[in-house]
Specification:
Blueprint (H helix, E strand, L loop, with lengths): L8 H5 L17 E2 L12 H20 L6 H13 L9 E5 H13 L5 E6 L3 H9 L3 E8 L2 E2 L1 H13 L6 E4 L13 H14 L2 E5 L24 E6 L10 E5 L2 H10 L7 H11 L3 H27 L4 E2 L7 E5 L6 H11 L1 E2 L1 E2 L12 E5 L5 H20 L1
Parallel strand pairs: 1-12, 3-4, 3-6, 6-7, 7-8
Antiparallel strand pairs: 2-9, 4-5, 8-9, 10-11, 11-14, 13-14
The protein binds pyridoxal-5'-phosphate (PLP).
């Protein structure tokens, strides 16, 4: 008898999470562009220390005891949503330990084994793994240079309907998508919202990167185009403040928010954390911080794009208008699976495209994050990547 015999089928099939221990150096100290970490140079350390001191001085018991979220953070989220054109209500906001927790609660409310979920191909597998673990049947719809292909989505919905299947939800990352960096134009947003309503399926709008726009003009979120019935908007403070705080939220139809809250059995997302984020944001501080992040990340994105054009002339990519990633189609004949070990020897790491497709395809692609490393190291990483590709092509 073994302990593992006690595991559920889902536990037996589970794979390790995306972020494992750091990859070991293979001789050359590694520069990793594999994960979308924040730039540590940009953490507002002093302001966070000040905010913590203020809230502890004001009411240490409220901050440090078990207790509810501070209503100020619900108001902050609702106000930010209203600025985006969403008809937002504080009592339709759920706060959670990262948007990841929201995406983990969703299948508990919506998925029984065998239920269908529509996802983008490629997408953020960190979320999709949670749907799969709940037993969802995943149906991928392709992403092109303008995000989710809505024609293909409509064809998929039609086919499913013909087969008597009503998908539980569509999971979309409309702005600076992870991993492709693409943004859905307004016409596609409108179409997607209309399709969700026509087919009676929930549209999960995960807009983790929306505030990090470097170029172009902001587009209305799909939650602003919906009549309030079919869109769950999911967001996070991870990308605009600090991932380590792990503060995320969702806003959507009240009955759904109430159910999600019931499954968040531990209750609030922390009196201290919710107060800290709200206190930091006071007086326009969060907006000013986001403005600084945009300028900084734009420069790093441009540096990576320029270095890739120099070092990898055969690669194909679109420079994103915001976010953390450049999605690159490798030169003809180069596969990410073959390139990865060579790149590690050259001291550079990327995320293989296969880590972004639920069906394991995508070996012609890699995702490069420009978010964490400083410009000089980003440029060095591109040089190393170019050398690794040339070595592979010569072999
Ligand atoms: C598209 C997308 N959604 C959600 C998340 C999770 O963010 P959080 O830190 O709020 O859990 C990420 C983080 O990488 C992401 O890329």
């Amino acid at each position: 008898m073994q302990l593992a015999d006690l595991f559920t089928p889902q536990a037996r099939e589970a794979t390790p999470p995306m972020y494992g221990p750091p990859t070991a150096d293979q001789g050359v100290p590694l520069i990793s562009l594999a994960y979308g970490l924040a730039d540590p140079a940009l953490f507002p350390r002093e302001e966070l220390v000040d905010a913590a001191a203020r809230l502890l001085a004001a009411d240490a018991n409220a901050a440090l005891n078990y207790g509810p979220n501070t209503p100020e953070l619900l108001t902050l989220v609702a106000e930010r949503l209203r600025r985006e054109g969403v008809t937002a209500h504080e009592d339709q906001v759920l706060l959670a330990y990262g948007s990841s927790q929201v995406l983990g609660l969703l299948p508990q409310v919506l998925i029984e084994p065998g239920d269908t979920v529509i996802i983008e191909a490629p997408t953020f597998l960190g979320a999709v793994m949670r749907f799969r673990m709940a037993g969802a049947r995943l149906v991928g719809v392709p992403v092109d240079a303008e995000g989710l292909d809505v024609e293909a989505l409509e064809a998929t919905l039609r086919e499913l309907r013909r087969a008597g299947v009503r998908p539980k939800f569509i999971y979309s990352i409309p702005t600076f998508q992870n991993p492709t960096g693409t943004t859905l134009p307004l016409s596609r947003r409108q179409r997607l919202v209309a399709l969700a309503a026509d087919y009676g399926t929930l549209l999960v709008e995960d807009d983790a990167y929306v505030d990090l726009r470097f170029r172009g003009t902001a587009l209305p979120p799909m939650a602003a185009l919906d009549d309030g019935n079919w869109v769950l908007r999911v967001g996070t403070f991870s990308k605009i403040l600090a991932p380590g705080l792990r503060m995320g939220w969702a806003h959507g139809p009240k009955p759904l928010i109430e159910r999600l809250q019931m499954f968040k059995v531990e209750g609030s997302s922390g009196p201290f954390l919710t107060r800290l984020v709200a206190a930091f944001a006071e007086g326009g501080r969060l907006d000013a911080h986001i403005a600084a992040l945009r300028t900084h990340y734009a420069a790093k994105c441009d540096a990576l794009a320029a270095a890739l054009r120099r070092e990898l002339p055969g690669a194909d990519f679109v420079v994103p208008q915001g976010g953390f990633f450049i999605w690159l189609r490798l030169p003809e004949g180069v596969r990410a699976s073959a390139l990865a070990p060579v790149a590690l020897r050259h001291g550079v790491e990327f995320l293989a495209g296969t880590r972004c497709f639920a069906d394991g395809s995508g070996d012609a692609y890699i995702r490069l994050a420009f978010s964490e490393e400083p410009v000089a190291r980003i440029e060095e990483a591109a040089r190393r990547l170019g050398a690794a590709v040339r070595e592979l092509q010569a072999s």
